[in-house]
Amino acid sequence: MGGRCSTAAARDPSQDEPLLDAGNTLVAAELDTRVVAVADRVIDLGPGAGDAGGAVVAAGTPAYVADKGVGASAGYLSSALQAATNATPM
């Protein structure tokens, strides 16, 4: 079992591949919805921030969490999924 911890600002996603290729699970607290949109599974905490949050409001694929529409993240995630769908391949 391997692991790595870093702040979002210092995070280099290329460092994740060896961990994932070795069969490890990567758990990240991520706010960039472009990254969340391509995750295998998402756990959305909420429904708000601070004392108004902390409960699991949705869990599943990014599309499922976006469709649930419970937490504040759902709308942002839905937009990120739509943008990824409309992106032109390079």
Q: Your description of this structure?
A:
It is found in: Cytoplasm. It is a single chain. The protein has 90 residues and is α+β, with helices and mostly antiparallel strands. It folds into 2 domains: 1-29, no CATH class; 31-90, no CATH class. 34% of the residues lie in helices and 12% in strands. It is built from 4 helices and 2 strands; from the N terminus they run ααββαα. A hairpin with an 8-residue loop joins β1 (42-46) and β2. The longest helix is centred in the C-terminal third of the chain and has 14 residues, at 73-86.
Set out the fold topology.
Elements (H helix, E strand, L loop, with lengths): L15 H6 L11 H4 L5 E5 L8 E6 L1 H7 L4 H14 L4
Helix pairs in contact: 3-4
Give a brief outline of the structure.
With 90 residues, this protein is α+β, with helices and mostly antiparallel strands. The chain has helices at residues 16-21, 33-36, 62-68, 73-86, and strands at 42-46, 55-60. It comes from Dermacoccus barathri.
